[in-house]
């Protein structure tokens, strides 16, 4: 029994390190969470965070069930996701760039991403697709252990992903406390909008 558990512990270590490297590094989700944390606070950004984590896990489950094969047989779908994701990120970058200071938020009707918006975004987020396909492709075991190893990989991603992305929202909250004037907020939101839009470059490379 101990040997069995030890084998799975050895299996999970590289999976969790991979999940951490993919979840904690800059990308569309983390840039948007930084902006959300600064503009809306940590608590109001929680649905956004949960949506990202659940969305990535659902995407991984779909890849496990065979969705990743579509990209191999029909490369056009990969191009389609890249184009759709790029257009959406450019639109989001613009919306973030023109966001008013938080004190004007209610008057302007601005709200953070909802759980469902964040989860749905993962399906046009090329980095999320790369995470899902790479994790399932690299770490799943063959034979009778395929299903169990896939479930453990997906669970490991969820366990690691949420605290990793939460750090970015917390970073945004810390930045928000330093922004004292509407001019500061304008500069910050334009900068974050530009960073969000610049993620398109990473997608198209």
Automatic annotation (TrEMBL):
InterPro entries: LeuE-type. It comes from the Bacteria. It is a multi-pass membrane protein. Its main location: membrane. One of its GO terms (molecular function) is amino acid transmembrane transporter activity. The chain crosses the membrane at residues 47-67, 118-139, 151-175, 187-204. It is found in: Cell membrane. Keywords: Cell membrane, Membrane, Transmembrane, Transmembrane helix. GO terms for cellular component: plasma membrane. GO terms for biological process: cysteine export across plasma membrane. This is LysE family translocator. It comes from Nitrincola tibetensis.
């Amino acid at each position: 029994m101990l040997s069995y558990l030890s084998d799975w512990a050895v299996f999970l270590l590289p999976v969790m390190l991979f999940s951490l490297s993919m979840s904690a590094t800059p990308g569309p989700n983390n840039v948007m969470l930084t902006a959300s944390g600064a503009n809306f606070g940590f608590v109001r950004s929680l649905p956004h965070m949960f949506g990202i984590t659940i969305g990535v896990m659902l995407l991984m489950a779909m890849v496990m069930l065979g969705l990743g094969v579509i990209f191999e047989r029909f490369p056009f779908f990969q191009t389609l996701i890249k184009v759709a994701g790029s257009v959406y990120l450019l639109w989001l970058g613009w919306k973030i760039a023109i966001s008013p200071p938080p004190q004007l938020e209610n008057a302007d009707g601005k709200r953070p991403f909802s759980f469902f918006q964040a989860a749905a975004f993962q399906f046009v987020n090329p980095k999320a697709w790369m995470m899902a396909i790479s994790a399932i492709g690299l770490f799943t075991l063959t034979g009778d252990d395929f299903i169990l190893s896939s479930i453990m990989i997906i669970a490991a991603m969820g366990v690691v992903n949420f605290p990793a992305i939460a750090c970015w929202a917390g970073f945004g909250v810390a930045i928000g406390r330093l922004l004292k004037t509407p001019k500061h907020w304008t500069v910050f939101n334009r900068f974050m909008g530009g960073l969000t839009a610049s993620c398109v470059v990473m997608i198209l490379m």
